[in-house]
Amino acid sequence: xxxxxxxxxxxxxxxxxxxxxxxxxxxxxxxxxxxxxxxxxxxxxxxxxxxxxxxxxxxxxxxxxxxxxxxxxxxxxxxxxxxxxxxxxxxxxxxxxxxxxxxxxxxxxxxxxxxxxxxxxxxxxxxxxxxxxxxxxxxxxxxxxxxxxxxxxxxxxxxxxxxxxxxxxxxxxxxxxxxxxxxxxxxxxxxxxxxxxxxxxxxxxxxxxxxxxxxxxxxxxxxxxxxxxxxxxxxxxxxxxxxxxxxxxxxxxxxxxxxxxxxxxxxxxxxxxxxxxxxxxxxxxxxxxxxxxxxxxxxxxxxxxxxxxxxxxxxxxxxxxxxxxxxxxxxxxxxxxxxxxxxxxxxxxxxxxxxxxxxxxxxxxxxxxxx
Length: 371
What we know:
With 371 residues, this protein is an alpha/beta fold. The protein has helices at residues 7-11, 35-38, 63-67, 98-111, 125-136, 161-172, 180-183, 188-194, 196-204, 220-225, 230-236, 255-268, 275-281, 286-293, 323-328, 347-350, 352-367, and strands spanning 14-20, 25-31, 45-49, 73-77, 118-123, 144-147, 205-206, 247-248, 307-312, 336-341. Helix 4 packs across helix 5 and helix 9 (196-204) crosses helix 11.
């Protein structure tokens, strides 16, 4: 099997855990070498936050680039993933909300003596968590970097999945959040646990459009995530996907990368991770969001530090144009640079070197280091 690029460097990081309050949840995290020695008021501390259904090892391919730089960094296993706690059950859903996660991340940073010079860096659900980590701890942050998922403006309006899909179908031509109907279904974890390779294929498949006007563009994510019923059919091998297996993108054919994913899912399952969808669909965060909205002068919803947004051309859900919503409302007061990479949603597996270079070039201009 071909080795996973950066795995040796990833395994050289110091792995630690912490019991966070108030729920006594274990959070697993990794520190760059000589972490405390590298800390300085003049050098930001980077906090890398993965998304669904990944863990801290998602950043493996990028780690070697950051080890060559002066920035101390932390890689976090979000709740439900890797070495962190995996609470399940309806009474535990609220433990996955943004504020709880943000506060737990800062308990990690406090334990490691990190000052008020943090830059959260998040992908997918990690992007949403990084955004709220900044909003709930503005005085501790110097910048913000988000990948795939654009800024989610705080809202106290109850989330209505059907309405959200109606609105996005009208706006984009397809229901952006259709796949939530599968992830929030009672039997979804059981179906995904039964054949985790099918979910690897859902996330990393390649299907060029047969429509001439789409010029061979990969539409697999749109088909799986934004077409009613297709994700369930593919995972369960039913209906139109009963006897069909999609071709994988080149990076996803790496057997070692596949095996690490399969071993992790077979060990941990999807029962805990789907709670990210339940916590928003069940509206567990409305009070927290209202508190942000109620702060004077939009203090709770503006981004007042330099910000970098990295989108991907092949991401049908986390569209590259959605930063415009916050920009038009004047909420990006610290300035936001947008970079678009020719890749799919799971860009840290597909193009880790390019993502690291984009981040480091921006950090170099804004905060010193690589330029």
